[in-house]
Design brief:
Blueprint (H helix, E strand, L loop, with lengths): L1 E18 L4 E19 L5 E14 L10 E18 L3 E25 L2 E25 L4 E24 L5 E20 L2
Antiparallel strand pairs: 1-2, 1-8, 2-3, 3-4, 4-5, 5-6, 6-7, 7-8
């Protein structure tokens, strides 16, 4: 067996949508994963390949106008598992294609707003987060420079389905508390580059 754990950085470019009573809303988001820990386990004889992936990062969107912010940012955490086949697995290079399924949580943070209406101070807080399941495929190339050290690069493409949760907390003169959960669906593309260790 060949085990190739990797750690590096990656970025997600995604689009999803959710339906309100009025229309379908679109969200375009960008994520920078400053930790992307992943790995391949290749069975040398059959080339059957297992994969894991854990990522932690920062996310940003400018499409959540409905919630009162032109620029919403927060953090994201995800993990996934998959299986597939390594088309090439030599002493110098490994090329693998795997299916992958994972879960992803995005917290766009809590935002407090104070405004004056007719001389009256109104304040409220909004909180927004998204949880989704992602299903897709992952292509990875790992290149060995020494007996153990190397570099890897990959590309993941996934469909996503999940829920977007919005909470409105009225603090002073701002109406009533409210919460809503929307169903979301979409896709994301994730390129990455890592250093890896061959075992």
């Amino acid at each position: 067996m060949t085990f190739i754990p990797s750690i590096g950085i990656s970025g997600d470019l995604g689009n999803c949508s959710y339906d309100t009573s009025a229309k379908t809303q679109k969200i375009s988001f960008q994520e920078f994963n400053f930790i992307d820990a992943n790995g391949l386990l290749v069975f040398n004889k059959s080339r059957f390949t297992l994969r894991y992936d854990v990522d932690i990062g920062y996310t940003k969107t400018t499409d959540l106008m409905k919630f009162g912010d032109l620029d919403v940012s927060g953090y994201t955490f995800g993990f996934g598992l998959g299986a597939g086949y390594s088309f090439l697995n030599t002493k110098r290079i490994t090329l693998a294609l795997t299916g992958i399924i994972g879960m992803h949580y995005t917290d766009f943070g809590e935002h407090k707003t104070n405004i004056f209406i007719s001389g009256i101070n109104c304040s409220y807080k909004r909180k927004l987060n998204m949880f989704d399941v992602r299903l897709g495929y992952d292509f990875e190339t790992a290149l060995r420079f020494t007996n153990h050290f190397g570099m890897s690069a990959g590309l993941r493409m996934s469909a996503l389905v999940g829920s977007l949760s919005y909470t409105y907390d009225a603090i002073e003169n701002a109406g009533n508390d409210a919460s809503k959960i929307y169903d979301v669906k979409g896709f994301e593309v994730t390129p990455r580059i890592c250093v890896c260790w061959f075992m």
